[in-house]
């Protein structure tokens, strides 16, 4: 079965060790994490982990269910790249002297939609937001001028789907309330 | 003095709380959860708890085992026979790591056990302090949930949460790691049971549409088969299963941990599934047109080769754990609910039916298996004593009324195959994990849980020696358990595989054994060795009649094989009935 890139969004309680529990599930199946980002979510107190993995669709479904099974995980979403809007951010630290001849730096920044953060006599720091391919293209373009440091962040993404986490949380709360009510009436009878 | 009394009064009166130490809060919280029995082993970091335990000995019965692994297995068996979460204490470091095999065993078999481990004082955590282990990290892959408590005030809420998680949904072991300073510190104690966790909702509303679809599939089936697993017993759906089977006329096959959820003497009982299961249910799995799997997980020991498993059948899978659907076997209809809820709603939707010719196929298979395997195994006329014969005799003498506990390997398979289980919850074994050494401590735990029942353990000479120190627990607590050591001088199951698949090269499976009767006698436990067939029945009767503990060591045929067998990589329908070992 063909491997494909998937973005897994894991919404969880802010419990120590959750990242460890998630990676254990992937390690058991020998699935490599391509990128990882941890942040807060739009819902207060809920953490969001965004993982990118390359695996088969069957396997990603299985591991997502095992992640959702974890007690402190609220909800797990799996998306292929066309179902989400996503970005990564990269920083490039390049030798200044090469870049300063002519309008090289201006061209690069314009053509690659990048941004200059710092210019010093020794080095220039460029920032670029985009997809992995675009970020790598810029890295290749800068290589001849002497890249001193390069780093790319994990993927951040939002979904195109309309139903938001809050709606799921409300559903879960309601289901529990209904159940409690049923239990109470059951006990009374 | 007066001042002290006043202070104590004041402590109790503030907001209706009590000012007590963390150690006492642990014990009070456990009692709030209905705990009266704890298995454990003390050590440095957990001393404050054990000290307090002395004041509560009238309410909390602490069972001191001889090794933490024994405590963990005993707590699991206790949970399995009582239906209440088991509780197990251990100290930090080696105490905690010694639990791991027991925790993993409970995890694979979905048994609720609350493990409480002590941790070094919080200021020392992370410094490689004496007897410090990162037990949260170590136990994470084998617990349903775990948590560290560093503040005394967090103890009651954490214990409440631990019990809620352990016993709800698909049950499992949880571990709470409590620092020594949190045990010493004081808190304003107030207990509130956990009723809801936002991130974990085990109360899934019944998927009525799915159950209605299942009813249609069931009503139209021609060769339906029920596969009943541990989930039936966990959800307490034994009555519903029986009612469902009787109304629809569908035969019931059980998994290893499903054993005893359906009476073995029932006309619709199809037998045990899996590698050493019965001939009929295995072979006919590949002829059924509808499989209704309830509270089971299509373990590889049940399915054999997945590529040749029930391809002709439509499959309905009922389970509380969503991650089990399509994990091993793709199913046609999944019902993500509690087994009992589903069956209660399903029964009225199904039609009264009977499948005489389909049932006859099972009986034909039963006859074949009886002639080729069961009869020679349970009624041999000559040669050494056989395992099946021992189990069969115990089954007859106890009329299927005992709680049977096993170790792992041939003794386990023989007990599963030849004891006639009638009452739910009467078979305790290590299923998913296959832990040798489980037998003896689990027998002890089961007896503490069901003192009213005859509890009989079966173990081999290998597994017995893995936790043999628990004989000390029997001696210490004067526990009237019965144990049968089936001694063939080999690690029997591994030797069987060597016989069948490794050209009979017996690599490290022959044991040089001590004189077991002498050792057992050293612990003050009556014991007897049985060698002759003529003595077998009387010796078992003597054991069963003994008021206190009694252990039999029975010399078994050295190279007996458990048959039938689905060989590794084979299909369930290619189960081997005859095997002649190479000379």
Largest interface: A-B, 27 and 26 residues
Give the mean pLDDT of chain A.
89
Range of helix content of chain A: 25-40%
Task: Give me the secondary-structure category of chain A.
Answer: alpha+beta
The name of the CATH topology of the largest domain in chain B is Rossmann fold
State the major sheet of chain A: 5 strands, antiparallel
Q: Tell me the overall shape of chain B.
A: globular
Q: What count of structural domains of chain B?
A: 3
Strand content of chain A: 35-45%
Residue-averaged pLDDT of chain B:
96
Question: What structural category characterises the helix and strand content of chain B?
Answer: alpha/beta
- How many runs of DSSP E, i.e. beta strands of chain A? 9
Task: Flag low-confidence runs of chain B.
Answer: none
CATH homologous superfamily descriptor of the largest domain in chain B? Thiamin diphosphate (ThDP)-binding fold, Pyr/PP domains
Helix content of chain B: 25-40%
Q: What gyration radius of chain A follows from the Cα positions, in whole Å?
A: 22 Å
Which assembly state applies to the chains in this document? heterodimer
Which stretches of chain A of 5+ consecutive residues score pLDDT under 50? Answer: none
């Amino acid at each position: 079965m063909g491997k494909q890139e998937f973005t897994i969004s894991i919404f969880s309680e802010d419990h120590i060790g959750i990242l460890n529990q998630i990676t254990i599930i992937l390690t058991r199946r020998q699935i490599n994490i391509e990128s990882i980002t941890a942040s807060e979510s739009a819902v207060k107190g809920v953490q969001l982990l965004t993982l990118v993995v390359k695996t088969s669709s069957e396997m990603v479904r299985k591991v997502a269910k095992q992640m959702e099974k974890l007690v402190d995980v609220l909800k797990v979403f799996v998306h292929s790249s066309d179902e989400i809007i996503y970005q990564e951010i990269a920083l490039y630290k390049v030798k200044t002297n090469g870049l300063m001849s002519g309008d090289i730096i201006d061209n690069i920044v314009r053509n690659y939609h990048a941004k200059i953060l710092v210019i010093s006599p020794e080095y220039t720091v460029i920032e670029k937001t985009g997809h992995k391919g675009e970020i790598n293209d810029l890295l290749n373009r800068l290589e001849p001028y002497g890249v001193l440091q390069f780093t790319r962040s994990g993927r951040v993404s939002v979904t195109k789907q309309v139903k938001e986490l809050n709606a799921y949380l409300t559903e879960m709360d309601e289901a529990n309330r209904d159940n409690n009510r049923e239990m109470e009436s059951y006990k009374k009878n | 003095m007066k001042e002290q009394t006043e202070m104590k009064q004041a402590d109790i009166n503030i907001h209706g709380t009590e000012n007590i130490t963390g150690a006492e809060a642990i014990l009070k919280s456990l009692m709030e959860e209905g705990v009266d029995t704890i298995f454990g082993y003390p050590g440095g970091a957990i001393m404050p708890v054990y000290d307090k335990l002395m004041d509560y000995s009238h309410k909390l019965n602490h069972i001191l085992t001889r090794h933490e692994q024994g405590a963990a297995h005993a707590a699991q068996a206790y949970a399995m026979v009582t239906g209440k979460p088991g509780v197990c204490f251990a100290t930090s470091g080696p105490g905690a790591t010694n639990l791991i095999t027991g925790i993993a065993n409970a995890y694979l078999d979905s048994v609720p056990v609350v493990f409480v481990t002590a941790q070094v004082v919080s200021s020392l955590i992370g410094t490689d302090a004496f007897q410090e282990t990162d037990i949260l990290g170590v136990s994470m892959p084998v617990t349903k949930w775990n948590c560290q408590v560093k503040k005394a005030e967090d103890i009651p809420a954490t214990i409440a949460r631990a019990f809620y998680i352990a016993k709800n949904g698909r049950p499992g072991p949880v571990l709470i790691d409590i620092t020594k300073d949190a045990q010493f510190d004081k808190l304003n104690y107030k207990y509130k049971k956990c009723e809801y966790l936002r991130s974990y909702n085990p109360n899934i509303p019944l998927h009525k549409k799915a159950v209605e679809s299942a009813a249609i599939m069931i009503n139209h089936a021609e060769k339906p088969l029920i596969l009943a697993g541990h989930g039936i017993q966990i959800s307490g759906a034994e009555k519903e299963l029986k009612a469902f089977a009787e109304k629809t006329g569908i035969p019931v096959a059980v998994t290893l941990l499903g054993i005893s959820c359906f009476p073995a003497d029932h006309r619709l009982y199809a037998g045990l599934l899996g590698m050493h299961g019965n001939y009929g249910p295995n072979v006919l799995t590949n002829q059924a047109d509808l499989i209704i799997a309830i509270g089971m997980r299509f373990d590889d020991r049940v399915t054999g080769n997945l590529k040749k498993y029930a391809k002709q059948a439509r499959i309905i899978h009922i389970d509380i754990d969503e991650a089990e659907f399509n994990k091993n076997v793709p199913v046609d209809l999944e019902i993500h609910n509690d087994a009992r809820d589903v069956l209660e709603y399903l029964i009225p939707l199904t039609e009264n039916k009977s499948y005489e010719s389909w049932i006859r196929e099972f009986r034909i298979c039963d006859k074949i298996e009886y002639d080729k395997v069961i009869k020679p195994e349970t009624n041999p006329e000559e040669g050494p004593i056989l395992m099946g014969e021992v189990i069969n005799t115990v089954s007859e003498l106890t009329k299927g009324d005992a709680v049977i506990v096993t170790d792992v390997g041939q003794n386990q398979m023989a007990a599963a195959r030849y004891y006639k289980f009638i009452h739910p919850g009467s078979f305790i074994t290590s299923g998913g994990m296959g832990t040798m050494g489980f037998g003896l401590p689990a027998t002890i735990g089961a007896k503490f849980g069901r003192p009213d029942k005859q509890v009989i353990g079966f173990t081999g000479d290998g597994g017995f020696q893995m936790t043999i120190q628990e004989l000390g627990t029997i001696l210490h607590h004067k526990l009237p358990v019965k144990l049968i050591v089936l001694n063939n001088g080999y690690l029997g199951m591994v030797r069987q595989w060597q016989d069948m698949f490794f050209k009979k090269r017996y690599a490290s499976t022959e044991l040089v054994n001590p004189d077991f009767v002498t050792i057992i006698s050293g612990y003050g436990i009556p014991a007897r060795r049985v060698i002759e067939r003529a003595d077998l029945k009387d010796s078992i009767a003597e054991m069963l009649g003994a008021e206190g503990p009694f252990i039999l060591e029975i010399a078994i045929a050295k190279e007996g094989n458990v048959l039938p067998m689905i060989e590794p990589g084979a299909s369930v329908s290619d189960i081997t009935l005859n095997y002649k070992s190479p000379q």
